[in-house]
Automatic annotation (TrEMBL):
CDD domains documented for this protein: IPMI
GO molecular function, one term: metal ion binding
Top enzyme class: lyase
Keywords noted in UniProt: 4Fe-4S, Amino-acid biosynthesis, Branched-chain amino acid biosynthesis, Iron, Iron-sulfur, Leucine biosynthesis, Lyase, Metal-binding
Protein name per UniProt: 3-isopropylmalate dehydratase large subunit
Role summary: Catalyzes the isomerization between 2-isopropylmalate and 3-isopropylmalate, via the formation of 2-isopropylmaleate.
Entry similarity comment: Belongs to the aconitase/IPM isomerase family. LeuC type 1 subfamily.
Species: Bythopirellula polymerisocia
Length: 465
């Protein structure tokens, strides 16, 4: 048989029907659901008098709208309350597992899927959410879908899809001390730009990727979409299997499952439509300066000026971004002063992220000019962090310690930036208004965010003592 890529194998395993020149019909193994993109989908089912085809393959949680403060209080915002009440009622009516607000396993959908062992190698995983690419870290084909597609998957457990091309992003060598998976992915997006991955499913390969932990691999795959890609994936290996072993919803005969998963990685000699190679040693800690994740530089450099770009469109984009961000261009990144720091989101709110931030924060105080918060990605992450005493480290340093949810990653709940506020954030999007109208977001790693909270401005984590 012709050598195949990881992507091709998963695709081949899931095509239910394909007519020449038409979209393929794919079987979906796992459908994750949240409150924002599901209400109309369920309504559609009701109107058509249909049931959910495979309720046991469908898992729901509330994450975007949930308040991250006291959960014993009623939800103040009527729209948020309605969305969450609606999801709860829909899951009950259609027989779907739902992790409700006060469930210890509630959390950001992309954090709880892997944590509970729902996410597994070789699967096709969809969710009405662009950061579904996160699950590709397990060697799954995972991507976001729209609300009408959510309805289609609920009704049929299948999805119509055009086949993307494959793009290999290979990172050779080892990351230097202080350089994290977040820096790696920001760097890659900076290199390929936010539409470099358009039309592709990315497979991340190379020594720098192989040596990442599962949580770090999730950080990388999470942001695939910010590089324009349909999905991002990493071949499963022993790191993957050891992470999954013993988790709640993994296959009962785990060793037999592993034996099958071992067939998934790309065969030697298989061809990608395109391959790009990078050197881990070239990557420094990254900070975004603009209004998309590709507008990024190393912490030890300067905010660019429009004139630094050769292309006139890029110059215009840069000028508009600088204006929104309240920057002139030419400032040293380490001179940028912060008002807020947000450590959270499906990119960087797993236990290893919180450990990395706590290691920096331990024994220090948050700058008096900064309001800093830490929002665990899930109830389980929160419990574990508390068992390890990380909450204490954060609280003693002056960080706010919250309940799990999307929080200030996007302004759909009470956690928001005020206009003009500058924020160091471990999330994945720095679009205009993303964290609140007029808010200014700089994307960084958890360690860099913690250091910035303490110093009151960005610091090169490699100099941190
Ligand atoms: C609300 C949801 C549809 C959205 C997404 O698709 O990604 C959100 O999660 C985001 O990160 O912007
Ligand atoms: S944490 Fe942010 S990026 Fe992730 S699902 Fe929630 S809103 Fe989207």
């Amino acid at each position: 048989m012709k050598p195949r890529t990881l992507f091709q194998k998963i695709w081949d395993n899931h095509v239910v029907h394909q007519e020449a020149g038409r979209q393929a019909i794919l079987y979906v193994d796992l459908h994750l659901v949240h409150e924002v993109t599901s209400p109309q989908a369920f309504e559609g089912l009701r109107l058509a008098n249909r049931l959910v085809r495979r309720p046991e393959r469908t898992v729901a949680t509330a994450d975007h709208n949930v308040p991250t403060s006291d959960r014993s209080l009623p939800i103040a915002d009527p729209i948020s309350k309605q969305q969450i009440d609606t999801l709860r009622a829909n899951c009950k009516e259609f027989g779907i597992t739902y992790y409700d607000l006060n469930d210890a396993q509630q959390g950001i959908v992309h954090v709880i899927g892997p944590e509970l062992g729902y996410t597994q190698p070789g699967m096709i995983i969809v969710c009405g959410d662009s950061h579904t690419s996160t699950h590709g870290a397990f060697g799954a084909l995972a991507f976001g879908i729209g609300t009408s597609e959510v309805e289609h998957v609920l009704a049929t457990q299948t999805l119509l899809q055009d086949k993307p091309k494959t793009l290999e992003l290979r990172v050779d060598g080892e990351l230097k001390p202080g350089v994290t998976a977040k820096d790696l992915i920001l760097y890659l997006i900076g290199q390929i730009t936010t539409d470099g991955g358009t039309g592709y499913c990315v497979e991340y390969t190379g020594e720098a990727i192989r040596s990442l932990t599962m949580e770090n691999r999730m950080t990388v795959c999470n942001m695939s979409i910010e590089g324009g890609a349909r999905a991002g994936m990493i071949a499963p290996d022993d790191t993957t299997y050891e992470y999954l072993r013993g988790r709640k919803f993994v296959p009962k005969d785990f060793d037999a499952a592993v034996a099958k998963w071992r067939e998934l990685p790309t065969d030697p000699g298989a061809e990608y439509d395109k391959s790009l190679v990078f050197q881990a040693a070239d990557i420094a800690p990254q900070v975004t300066w603009g209004t998309n994740p590709g507008l990024v530089v190393s912490v030890n450099s300067h905010v660019p000026k429009p004139a630094d770009f050769s292309d006139t469109t890029e110059q215009k984009t840069a000028a508009a971004a600088l204006e929104y961000m309240g920057l002139k261009g030419g400032e040293a990144i380490t001179d940028l002063k912060l008002d807020r720091v947000f450590i959270g989101s499906c990119t960087n709110a797993r236990i290893e992220d919180l450990r990395a931030a706590a290691a920096v924060a331990r024994g220090h105080q948050v700058s008096e000019n900064v309001n800093a918060m830490v929002v665990p990605g899930s109830g389980q992450v929160k419990i574990q962090a508390e068992q390890e005493g990380l909450d204490k480290v954060f609280r003693e340093a002056g960080f706010d310690w919250r309940e799990a949810g999307c929080s200030m990653c996007l302004a759909m709940n009470p956690d928001k930036l005020a206009p003009g506020e500058r924020c160091a954030s471990t999330s994945n999007r720095n679009f205009e208004g993303r964290q609140g109208k007029g808010g200014r977001t700089h994307l960084v790693s958890p360690a860099m965010a913690a250091a910035a909270a303490i110093a009151g401005h960005f610091v090169d984590i490699r100099d941190w003592k």
